[in-house]
Amino acid sequence: MSTLSQWQLRAAFAARLSKMYGREVPAYTTLVDVSQEVNEDVLRAQGADAERLGSISRVTAERHGAIRVGTPRELGQVARVFAALGMHPVGFYDLREAAASAVPVVSTAFRPVDGDELARNPFRVFTSMLTPADPRFFDPGLRARLENFLASRELFPPELLTLADRATADRGLPHHEAERFLELAVGAFELSPEPVDRTWYETLERVSAVAADIGGVRSTHINHLTPRVLDIDELYRRMTERGIEMIDTIQGPPAWRGPDVLLRQTSFRALAEPRAMRTPDGDVVSGALRVRFGEVEARGIALTRAGRALYDKLLALVDEESTRAESGASRAEIARSVWERHMPATEEELAAQGLAYFTYQVAAGRPRDDGPVPESVSELVRRGWVRAAPVVYEDFLPRSAAGIFQSNLSSEGTRHSEQQGTAYDAGWLSDAIGREVLDPFALYEQEQKRSLARVARELGVDGSLS
């Protein structure tokens, strides 16, 4: 009996989810088509350099999804479904603090963590959970109503969760069970035809459109699905030429002459989708909700903690210079200027200053001089003994994610900032879902250290390289 391994389940789920979302949101298919066109053009123009941060087959197939749930129980169930696909919770993101408008959610991302698994299929899902206990957004009465509503719904059928647990334990499923699992898993994220209680939805929408999207309906759905592109600025231009309304900016680092780092994201604006609405007198009428959009991303090099601190410092400097700008320069122009003044302009400088993660391997045909093996990684690279490859950033940026959310909201909602917010962190989230939320920096550092250990062994270097 043939068995589908976890990575094969993951690849099949990502492909089927993409097909389903394309049916539901046709503009997403346009986004995928334009992304592929841009990637092919970049590959023709740049050759092997275009694949420095991932093979073209990986980049073309790559997707990240986004979903939203309401409670720790629901998040725990999501974790079980994604565990079946070899995906683990990585990183803690507090969008309440990153957003200027009302976005009452905390998030994590489920993804593969092993390098080989990422190479096979790097599908990841940014998963947000509502925070009804935060008094800045929900007064006691609304919180009680919301929690009762969330407790009464079932997002994931028991059969799906049983199959998910079996796939996790057995690291795969027999073909017939795999087919059933995929059917149920994709179905759980389809847009439900069930009528939406208009009054309840509008009550939550006055607080936050995101809260209404999560707690105003009796199901969940894929909120956006994101292809990866090699030139996001060119994609933005081509999508606009095709008449697709894009959000105002590309979130994340600016376009500049130096290395691409972390993550750049943009999207087309949320579309008004027809939904059945139930009125207070029980009638079902036609309505529309504007909550889903099409996002696209360009991934760069993973930064170390020191590199990330520099990135955050530069963002603050861009904010400061944009506020007092008198030249009429755009924010993008100011950001480019800040980057060119303060960010290392080459991968070699990023590595030498300990600002980014790289993997290392002994170069074929390395020099065979009579001198001792250099004990400095930078010297090994400089003299051609070792080659460095940048580690791709596999995670997300809270401010960028919040910026995408905000750009697709019709109003800022309501936020009582004078109230003390409820505390959440990675430890709380780990306890809530019953599995450790992994530290992305630790994962990148382990990958770099493993590669250096291999180099040291091959070159016969005692101790560790630095």
From TrEMBL:
CDD domains: VOC_YdcJ_like. Its cofactor is Fe(2+). InterPro entries: HGLS, YdcJ_bac-like. Its EC number is 1.13.11.93. Coiled coil: none annotated. Keywords: Dioxygenase, Iron, Oxidoreductase. Pfam families: HGLS. Belongs to the 2-oxoadipate dioxygenase/decarboxylase family. This is 2-oxoadipate dioxygenase/decarboxylase. It comes from Streptomyces spirodelae.
